[in-house]
Amino acid sequence: MKVVVIGSGPGGYVAAIRCAQLGMEVTVVEKYPVLGGTCLNVGCIPSKALLDSSEHAHFWKVNAQKHGLHAESLRVDFKQMMQRKRDVVSQNGQGVEYLLRKNKVHWIQGKASFRDATSLEVQKPEGGAEIVKFDRCIIATGSKPVLPEAFQFDGERVISSTEALELDGIPQRMVVIGGGVIGLELGSVYARLGTQVEVIEYAEGILPGMDRDCARALQKALQALGMAFHTGHAVQRVERRGDHVLVRYRALNASEDTVAEADYCMVAVGRKPYTTGLAPERAGIALDDKGRIVTDAELQTKAWGVYAIGDVVGGPMLAHKAEEEGIFVAEHIAGQKPHLRYDLIPGVVYTWPEMAAIGRTEEQLHTEGIAYKIGKYPFKALGRARASGDVDGLVKIVADQQTDEILGAHIVGARAADLIMELAVALEFRAACEDIARISHPHPTYSEAIREAALDALDKRAIHQ
Description:
The chain is an alpha/beta fold. The protein has three domains: about 1-145 and about 270-340, FAD/NAD(P)-binding domain (3-Layer(bba) Sandwich), CATH 3.50.50.60; about 150-270, FAD/NAD(P)-binding domain; about 355-455, FAD/NAD-linked reductase, C-terminal dimerisation domain (Enolase-like, domain 1). It has helices at about 10-20, 35-40, 45-65, 80-100, 160-165, 180-190, 210-225, 320-335, 360-370, 385-390, 415-430, 435, 450-455; strands at about 1-5, 25-30, 105-110, 110-115, 120-125, 130-135, 135-140, 145, 160, 175, 195-200, 230, 235-240, 245-250, 260, 265, 270-275, 305-310, 345-350, 355-360, 370-380, 395-400, 405-415. A five-stranded parallel sheet has the order 3-2-1-7-18, with helices on one face. Strands 9-16-10-11-12 form a five-stranded parallel sheet. Strands 19-20-23-22-21 form a five-stranded antiparallel sheet, sandwiched between helices.
């Protein structure tokens, strides 16, 4: 069976490898000269490289002397920091290319468009076109930043996350429009390097849709870093003035604008599905009113044998969600009965402290009319957190009031991105708070906060609180 995958991001290359493992003849079409898509090249990987570098710098500038370490001559070499980021991206890209070769996946560089429901036309960068026929096709073309016209995006001073990963130097001031994951992550990178960062968010709090207690705790930690937040404010207009940017914004119930001046304005108000040039209508593929490809429960489009995964379809725009969908589709094509639960896909914010979530929030359970109970435990009560100096944050577990089944979990704190997986497994197997409470957790570790939060949900039985 011949399978063509359009796009080589986490969804695309994982789908291609799984199809190859299942004995299919696989071709990947990628329009860029490098593999890995947005995540690897201008998203997840480079942003995490810069986050780690900036966190090291902040430790030495602010916290090292508490540990008896002195580095008065510390200097940030921003060019080297950026070069390290590029090296990390390059190494990961080479890794993806190796994996495709290892699994005998063919790779074509070019821009794909549908000719019909069984073939593509691939425009080569050197000119000319190649016709690629297929038995099955998986669309994994990802997403692009949303850039409203009123924000006057120019890619120079009014930038998206893509340009924010490639600045020439550390700016003195930066305005970030959007208090979501991308805005907070990249905003915190520059704040740790000394930039005065202001975040303007339309909603009443940062990270809309995530747990409010944890979002407030994260905002408090980021404010301590020096970031300023204007929540419940709407941006009216962005104007470039030479090497500076003026951002006009106002409170939702106000009539007068406030003006913020900065070296850069980063627009981080979300992303949209990318289907430009794909010509899906030629294959009978439908889009919804938000530009997403319409699929059924098996992620098959209106065209039989053509599937779509990742950011180009509905659901959270997460690399690991795209990966799971890629595996799901590959196994479905092979005739298997794969399993995928969207409600148990973790969400992570890679600031420091990190924030992670799984399952439902307290607000969702309240809306659904489900009686619930809550267990909380602060990181500052952990011996391990005190030893490392990472005392910001908490673990919050929400469970069914009657059955004790864990329905959601939310963490702000050191290594939250890794800690959340204990609770992801718990939710997958429908564990109760008592199940977690009766499992021995090593001491001293951050994971003890999970056990203590579970104990707190059990009639406030936390030991160390």
